[in-house]
Specification:
Dehydroquinate synthase-like, alpha domain; binds nicotinamide-adenine-dinucleotide
Length: 362
């Protein structure tokens, strides 16, 4: 078998991208064959949900505004009950990964189709991956039923995303694409999307930092979110995502910030094992072609520098991690096996976590 062989089953979704595209929400609900939508959001995004519901008139069954991180099963049940009471035949998830995650939890149980209107760059709208937390344990999995049927990307809705969250969320997306470039089940189409997704984010982050209301930069970032999210939905992730899942879930650290801090170190860990992927990541981040090709650490350093230059966190100790939890983090990361270009080695993982804790440039 050649390392160029692959199997790729494409998924089917309808994507509408553009400034003011959220104005088509009612038409898109109808296009899905639905008539009454339950609109999901976080408590903070209720005003936006109300604004989007108004022109829906009879097509809006109601609003459920209790979406929160990690999708507690009780929240999912409450939303599902409301959907039943109101006779909703679809869910419109307006928000980031937490709100879209709630929609997925409802879809998993009830089969209710989801229309996603993402307002961060996390990419959940493009994946069949779900997560539900019950009794403090987050169960995750893949199921085609939870993949949003339609996605409306409107850059105007991201103008309110605070700048620090915009930068970390964009780097969260870069992480999907970077790991997609060395995925065990990768394929040429996903690699093209990954490289272009990273390129969009490398353009967007400085643009947003220069002017957070810059609509061109917001368009770049949202297009990057679509590309990187598609990669996440189509190929398997490795050490970086495993570490972030463990750190975020077990030590209650903020999702996008953990991705931002860990990515340079996960890339450095894998750099010698997949030089071709590192070359592509570095090139997409704007590293000079000859350096990108010759220096396997160029990708890891470029991610670190991009974060640092734009005020994003670079150390776990600065985002709430406690030093005494490092050992436990390593144990958790070593517990289950999963594909990674370089095998998991205890001592090297200790070093990775230590460097990420202290924020040392790779
Ligand atoms: P989030 O959805 O938790 O949102 C963070 C905060 O930002 C919330 O308070 C929200 O109300 C607010 N917010 C969102 N968009 C805003 C906007 N435009 N303006 C102002 N405020 C806004 O954050 P996230 O990083 O998008 O999602 C993180 C969660 O998503 C994690 O639980 C993660 O596991 C999950 N996730 C899942 C997948 C998947 O494929 N299943 C992919 C990525 C992330």
């Amino acid at each position: 078998m050649s390392d160029r062989d692959f199997v790729y089953t494409s998924v089917s979704q309808r994507i509408r991208f553009g400034t003011h595209s959220v104005g088509t929400l009612k038409a898109e609900i109808e296009h899905m064959g639905c008539r009454r939508a339950l609109v999901l959001c976080t408590p903070e995004q209720r005003p936006l949900a109300q604004e989007l519901s108004k022109p829906l008139e009879g097509a809006a069954a109601g609003i459920f505004d209790q979406a929160r991180m990690h999708v507690p099963v009780e929240t999912a049940h409450a939303a599902q009950q409301l959907a039943r009471q109101l006779g909703a035949d679809c869910a419109v998830a307006v928000g980031g990964g937490s709100t879209i995650g709630l929609g997925k939890a409802i879809a998993l149980d009830s089969g209710l189709p989801i229309l996603a209107v993402p307002t961060t760059y996390a990419g959940s709208e493009m994946t069949p991956i779900f997560g539900v937390t019950e009794g403090g344990v987050k169960r995750t999995g893949r199921d085609a039923r939870v993949l949003p049927r339609t996605v409306i990307y409107d850059p105007l809705l991201t103008l309110t995303l605070p700048l620090p969250m915009s930068v970390t969320s964009a780097l969260n997306a870069v992480a999907h694409a970077a790991e997609g470039l060395y995925a065990a089940d990768g394929n040429p189409v996903m690699s093209l999307m990954a490289e272009e997704g990273i390129r969009c984010m490398a353009r967007a982050i400085p643009g947003l930092c220069a002017h957070a209301q810059d609509l061109r930069a917001r368009e770049d970032a949202l297009q990057g979110a679509w590309l990187c999210g598609t990669v996440l939905g189509n190929v398997g992730m490795a050490l970086h995502h495993k570490l972030c899942h463990t750190l975020g879930g077990s030590f209650d650290l903020p999702h996008a910030s953990v991705h931002t801090v860990v990515l340079p170190h996960a890339l450095a860990y894998n750099s010698a094992a997949v030089p071709g992927a590192m070359h592509r990541i570095a090139r997409a981040l704007g590293v000079d072609e000859s350096e990108a090709a010759a220096q396997p650490l160029a990708a890891a350093r470029a991610v670190f520098d991009l974060a640092q230059r734009h005020g994003a966190p670079t150390a776990l100790k600065d985002i709430g991690m406690r030093e005494e939890d490092l050992l436990r983090a390593r144990e958790l990361a070593m517990q289950s096996q999963y594909p990674n270009p370089r095998p998991l080695e205890g001592e090297a993982l200790d070093q990775l976590l230590r460097n990420a804790f202290d924020g040392i440039r790779p």
